[in-house]
Write a structure and sequence with these properties.
Serine Threonine Protein Phosphatase 5, Tetratricopeptide repeat, single chain
């Protein structure tokens, strides 16, 4: 995984905040910010950024694809956690 600096994230956030929400720059900033968050594994915030991008351009294929990817990865992470917890519980129950 590529290391992303907090400065880059902050710059994208500022760029998005300084423009009109219907502006192309805002859309681009939201998508790039979402891509960085996705790479960092912050799936819930990623989905929110892509949802905001889709409010500006509901048919943006990049935002649609990456929002779905973030959702899939969030679900996969949750499933892995639940399976690990279930395995730990089974192990504890076997030792009783």
């Amino acid at each position: 995984m590529q290391k992303i600096s907090a400065d880059i994230l902050e710059q994208y956030q500022l760029a998005g905040n300084l423009t009109d929400s219907k502006d192309i720059l805002a859309l681009s900033s939201l998508i790039h910010y979402g891509e960085i968050l996705l790479e960092l594994g912050d799936y819930e915030t990623t989905e929110m950024k892509f949802a905001a991008a889709l409010q500006i351009d509901p048919n943006n294929s990049t935002a649609l694809l990456l929002r779905q990817r973030a959702s899939n990865q969030r679900v996969a992470k949750t499933v892995k956690r639940v399976i690990a917890e279930a395995c730990a519980l089974v192990t504890r129950l076997r030792s009783v």
